[in-house]
Amino acid sequence: MPHREPEPREVSPMVDSNQQISAMSEFIGRQSVLLEQGSAEDISSNSLYDVRSREPLDIDEVRDRRDNYIEETRIDNTTGAYSREELFRRYGRGFSEDNRVLAIDVAGLKVLNDFYGGHKTGDIALKGAVSAIASIIPGITVFRTGGDEFVAVSDDDVTQEQWEKVNDLYLSTINEVTEKKVGKDRTFLRAGQTSPTKEEVNNRPDGVISRADNVEIEIKLLINMLGSKKDVPLLATPEELEDWKKRNKIKIEWDGDKATAFQTWKLGEKRYAPTYVRRRGSRRVRGR
C-alpha cells in the first residue's frame, strides 16, 4: 500500500502557547530518535507541515520556530513585564519555599482611560506600575497576567514601606504624564502576598496565586466599603489582612466567587450594609 502523507492541519490560534511549544518539543524528540534509527519512512510519516507552503519541516526548522516562538511570548510588549506564558513556563511545576508571590492589580485604570488621556495614558500607567515595582524592590520579577493584573515573584518579603514607595513612584509617573494632580484615591496598586506551603512546593502554582489573589480582592472590597483614606493596607499577606480585619471589627464571607464584607460595632451585630465584589475569573490562574 503506497505511503500517504498526512494532510497538514493548522493549529487554532486559541491553543495555549505552552501546548504549541510542548508539541514542537515532542516532535523534535521523536524525530531525533527516528534520525538515529535511520528510518526514512517513519521520519516522513511523523513530519510537521508548514500551513502556507504545505511543505514538510525538518527538525532544524521546527527547532528554530520553537525557539523564536518562546522568545516572542516571553515579554508583554505593552508593559515590558514578562508574559503569563513565561510565568507558567518558569513556575508551571511550582514555586520554591523561598518564593514570595504577589497578585497585583492596577486600581483606577478605567478612570485614567476615561478622564486622563484615554488608553494611551492607561498603557503608560501599566508600564509605570511595572517600572515602579522593579525600581523599588530588588530582584523581583513581574509578569503580566491580564489587562490590569500582574503576578510578581520575589525571594524576600515585600514590606509595607517598600509598597508605599512603589505607589508614590507610580503616582508621580501618572502625574507627570497627565500634567494634572491625580490623587491617591483615583489610582494605586493593590497586592496580596503569600508563599507556598510545604505541600505546594514544586506542585502546580495555581493554589498559591489564588490565595494571593483572594487577599487582593479582599483589599479591593475593603476600600470599596471604607474608602481609600481609612488606612486599608494596599499590600498584605493573608495573616496580616486577617489581623487588620479583627482589629477593625470587619468580617468577609466568601460564597463561591463572591466575597461580601460586613463591619460590626457590637459582637454579632452587622451595622453596615453588606458590600461585595465578584471575582472576575482570576485570569492570573485561569484561561491559560
Question: Your description of this structure?
Answer:
With 288 residues, the protein is an alpha+beta fold. The protein folds into 2 domains: 17-72, no CATH class; 82-237, 2-Layer Sandwich (Alpha-Beta Plaits), CATH 3.30.70. It is built from 9 helices and 12 strands. The chain has helices at residues 17-37, 40-45, 59-72, 84-91, 109-115, 119-136, 160-178, 206-226, 238-247; strands spanning 48-49, 56-57, 82-83, 100-107, 141-144, 149-154, 188-194, 235-236, 250-255, 258-266, 269-270, 275-278. The strands form 3 sheets. A 6-stranded mixed sheet has the order 3-5-6-4-7-8. Strands 9, 10, 11 and 12 form a 4-stranded antiparallel sheet that branches. A hairpin with a 2-residue loop joins strand 10 (258-266) and strand 11 (269-270). The longest helix is centred in the first third of the chain and has 21 residues, at 17-37. It is globular and about 80 Å long. The two termini are 42 Å apart. The model is unreliable at 1-15 and 40-45 (pLDDT under 50).
Q: TL;DR of this structure?
A:
The protein has 288 residues and is of the alpha+beta class.
List keywords for this structure.
288 residues; single chain; 4-stranded antiparallel β-sheet; 12 strands; alpha+beta; globular
List the helices and strands and how they pair.
Layout: H1 17-37, H2 40-45, E1 48-49, E2 56-57, H3 59-72, E3 82-83, H4 84-91, E4 100-107, H5 109-115, H6 119-136, E5 141-144, E6 149-154, H7 160-178, E7 188-194, H8 206-226, E8 235-236, H9 238-247, E9 250-255, E10 258-266, E11 269-270, E12 275-278
Parallel strand pairs: 3-5, 7-8
Antiparallel strand pairs: 1-2, 4-6, 4-7, 5-6, 9-10, 10-11, 10-12
Helix pairs in contact: 1-3, 5-6, 6-7
